[in-house]
Amino acid sequence: MRIPLILALAFIFTGCVSQYKVVVDFSPVLRTHFHEYPTIEVDIAAITDAEADEIKQMGVENYFAPGSGTRQQLQTQTVFFYREELHSFVLPSRAPVWFSWKQKEPTSILVIASLPHDPSMSEQADPRYLTIPIKKSIVFARSAYIWVEPKRIIRVTRAVSKRGESETTQAAQWVEIRR
């Protein structure tokens, strides 16, 4: 009797947007690259395809420009990396902002960093922002791990250490996810 109810609920909620726990870490390589920890802003937001296209057309510099209303419109969660002792930022999957984001039926999570422009960067594939497709399912929470490097941000997975540490692993144990 319980199994048909579970199957019915699974069918009903199959189209639901999963909420993600987003973890952003600041690479220690940044300090050696810039000779000190620079102030870097990282925005996180759940976005629609139309918003993703708008941000791609806008570019990172215009996105972070003073007076740009896009950031406010997206209801971004902003992380400021500016101190050596600052560690991981975690946006929990149960953060209140997810309720607002889910109302617009987002398709991706945007992660964008105010890293300096590198002339060797391609306009088509700017490595200072990325979008992570949101999977639709009844899964309660998924995780996305982001690593901020001197010229790019990347999505990574965390390797579990031999002592069973998963959330507190060292940077050397992070592995880039290839797209």
Number of domains: 1
Say what the CATH topology is. Answer: Immunoglobulin-like
Structural class: alpha+beta
Shape: globular
Tally of helical segments: 6
Name the poorly predicted regions: 5-15, 160-179
The CATH architecture is Sandwich
Query: Rg from C-alpha positions?
Result: 18 Å
In round numbers, the mean pLDDT is 76
N-C termini distance:
43 Å
- What is the N-to-C succession of helices and strands? HEHEHHHEEHEEEEE
Largest sheet: number of strands, sense, barrel closure: 5 strands, mixed
CATH class: Mainly Beta
Helicity range = 25-40%
Q: State the assembly state of the protein chains.
A: single chain
Classified in CATH, the superfamily is Type VI secretion system, lipoprotein SciN
Q: Which band does the percent of strand residues land in?
A: 25-35%
> Total strand count, please?
9
Strand order of the largest sheet: 4-1-7-8-9
